[in-house]
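> tool_call: predict_assembly(chains=two)
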Amino acid sequence: MKANAGRVTSAAWMTAVFVFLYLPIITLIVFSFNASPMVTNWGGLSLRWYQALAGDREMIDGFKLSLKIAFSTGCSSVIFGTLAAITLHRFKRFPGRTLFAGMVNSPLVMPEVIIGLSLLLMLVSMQRLFGFPERGFGTIWLGHTLLGMAYATVVVLSRLQEMSPSLEEAAQDLGARPLQVFFLVTLPMISQAIASAWLLTFTLSLDDVVISAFLNGPGSTTMPITIFSRARLGLSPSVNTVAALTVAVVSIGVFAASILMSRAEKRRAAEMAAAYRKAD
Amino acid sequence: MAAPALTATTRRASIHGSWGRAAVIGVPMAFLLVVFLLPFLVVFKISLSEMDTVFFKDILVWKDDALVLALKFGNYLSLTQDTLYFNAYLSSLQVAATTTLICLAIAYPFAYFMARSPADRRPALLMLVMLPFWTSFLLRVYAWKMLLADAGVLNNAAIALGLIAEPVKMMNTPFSLVLGMVYTYVPFMILPLYANLVKMDLRLLEAALDLGATPWQAFWRITVPLSKSGIIAGSMLVFIPCVGEFVIPELLGGPETLMIGHVLWDEFFSNNDWPMAASVAVVMVGLIIIPLALFNKYQAESTAGARA
């Protein structure tokens, strides 16, 4: 009787939280097919906002730029993040370790207005001294990489920590050089974490408003900046269609990625098991 | 540190060679120093300088054969004198604290139930919590505008169902602001709590129950204290970014709650007063420095402790 009540409470609580999390997403998608020009009044099914979006130059150009920045951010964040994760995992003692860890972790929680403002003021001071960099693609990428690196480090580090050190040690004992150990043993084992980190930082960059708003220059308006400025003015059906498309692409992407990853994980586990059997 | 651990470290270090090690540490370190730490020093410097017509003046100038250090504390003085700033800081802290408490109240039971659900169902639940992360945060906040507006989806639905006769004012109030914040940040509370609760040794609870504790007592005296680090991590992950949040108050907030992120934005983009914006940022960093240190300490512990 009591256990049953517990189960009911648990199910009810979890359902309520999931409704809370998904209600806005579902609303966005449903109303992107709305025929009525009044954004929140249902006027029947229609694809008119999708047609309007196809001719929306500002949004499309912004999207292209955002994709380029997100792609570069994913790559650079993963490289810096992996190095930082290896540093934190491997080297327990070196001068400045506390500072290093603090600098890696702080962007996770640091308000974006502070990151954006401080980076911009530094870049402007630099520009005054040396004449570069111009604000635009590169400066936005720099800011996004700082944020992305922090997330990538967390993802890769947690994988490194659950990994048994015995394989790397075995490779070392068998005479592999450090770089060989890294590329032949460590990297394949953390490759999934790197892939997830890439996807995560890609999406973070694709979504960022505040850092981009501080660091953009003339002619480098990203899609989120366009969306934000329209959303600030009020409800806009164009935003709904963008939302629905993003949700569709992301859901398919995440779903496919998770299937691929769980397959790779299974295959790897099977190979490991086979290897251990052979070793015995 | 124990002796065996030390020898292991030295062995690794010698194997890896000092060059490789220096490169692995040096590259991310240099990047962070230039892109993260240096900007803060620049901001601090600019917060003490004076605005020229279009640019800020240097604080060190060569004048009459003397190096003059001109520090302007006026920005900080006006921060203390003008109640606008004080109220903005205060309401930011209030909103952040309220959001953190509500997130904790929602997320703790959720994470607890999730951690105690059948093991084969947990990955799917975790995926459902993470999925909204992958869809644009900006668009999800915008969606609440549609839901909460006077002629919005929720009001329309309630009127159609006959629950209310007149639309209820929800948009641009403290309610919509905190709702948007809780909505955005609740997964950041759920994840560390879940990670903590799922690792908990359930035998401790069994022992408590065997020794005559009621389930409620066992929960408060065993489960909650053991999940302390998850509670701290989650709370900091919510509280700190909330203090400086800009997008959510901008889209969902009302005129009565002016938050400091907005003030900073306005000083910079509308008033073009860079030193003032820099001072606002410096004081904001001062406000979050203790929670930030707490967060970093927790992160360092979780990185060090996981291998033990």
